[in-house]
Amino acid sequence: MSTTAKRFNIGFAVGAVLAVSLNLMPYLRTLGAYKGDGFEIIGAPFVFRRLGGIAGIYEFSAIALVADIVVALVIALLVAYTCLRVPRGDSSP
After folding, report:
1. Alpha carbon 57 to chain centroid, angstroms
2. In a domain, 93, yes or no
3. pLDDT digits (tens, 9 = 90+) for 7-22
4. Domain membership of residue 64 as a residue range
5. CA-to-CA distance for 58 and 77, rounded, in angstroms?
6. Can you tell me whether residue 65 is helix, strand or coil?
7. Is residue 79 part of a domain?
8. Looking at the domain assignment, is residue 92 inside a domain?
9. How many domains does the chain divide into?
């Protein structure tokens, strides 16, 4: 595999991990909130699952999930492209 492909793959993996982390952050912050009168939510920037509340609702949106996946792919591709554009730090002349 060429150096360019390696840099792209590493950048894409870092971007994907970043996007997944951003999606899980609301879930980790609201974990267990449904036991009271709060909501447990998953998703960023679009909430695709919501559980809880006084009435005890469960909502899931496939459209929001697909939109979150598209946003995650865009983030991963932007990070990968940025890794290609940043000059390498070679110290050899």
Report:
1. 25
2. no
3. 999 999 999 999 999 9
4. 3-85
5. 33
6. helix
7. yes
8. no
9. 1
90: in domain: no
Per-residue exposure over 41-73, b if at least 16 CB sit within 10 Å of its own CB, e if not? bbbbeebbbbbbbeeeeeeeeeebbeebeebbe
Q: Indicate the Cα dihedral angle 6, 65, 30, 76, nearest 10°.
A: 20
Contact 2, 9 (CB under 8 A): no
Burial level of 23, CB count in 10 A (0-12/13-18/19+)?
buried
Query: Which token pair is 36?
Result: 């009271």
Query: What is the rounded CA–CA span in Å between residue 12 and residue 23?
Result: 16
pTM beyond cutoff 0.85: no
Confidence of residue 90 (pLDDT cuts 50, 70, 90): low
